[in-house]
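Explain this fold:

***
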Amino acid sequence: MKNNLLLRVADEDDVDDIADLLNTCYRGEGGWTNEVNIISGQRISRDDVAAMIAGKKHYFFAFDNFGQLAEAGSLLGCIVVKLDLQEQQSQDAEHSAYVEMVAVHPAIQNQGIGGEMLGAVENFAMEHLKQGWMRMSVVDKLPELVAYYQRRGYELTGTSRPFPAEGHWGMPLEEGLKLLDLHKRLSEK
């Protein structure tokens, strides 16, 4: 389904709404992408969102709720991308765009909105990087989420790392939780 959604760059006025949306989507009970059974605590604090926006390394894109969904706040979705422009010190160095915090309000999931947001940031990355990789990490206990990204052309890289145990992004509810790395080659469409 094509939703013809309009994404805009979020700013400091969106901090509370972004934090609320991310915590609802990742740690709330609704939706198919939540982590509530594997990670406790909030996904992100308002201070962390504010610091990321102010730091100018992350692009937060917001999908506004123009009254379409009464139970939602002012945002229905968001997605974050960080561009990593490698100095071309070697032939192997390539630019990357790291996708993070993809969130669609649980009440409107499964309508193609997440895929459209992902496509929009892939186009944004291609426009800015010209070549390189899209990269992301997904919790290993969410195979349906890994499969979702694979259907969109992402591949497991074969690398993973332990989920951070310091509690900054929440506390794992089981030992051995990992983040799996995925990537997709940027190409002209």
Remarks:
- Residues 113-129 form the longest helix (17 residues).
- The first strand starts at residue 7 and ends at 9.
- The chain has a mean pLDDT of 89.
- Helices lie at 15-27, 46-55, 113-129, 143-151.
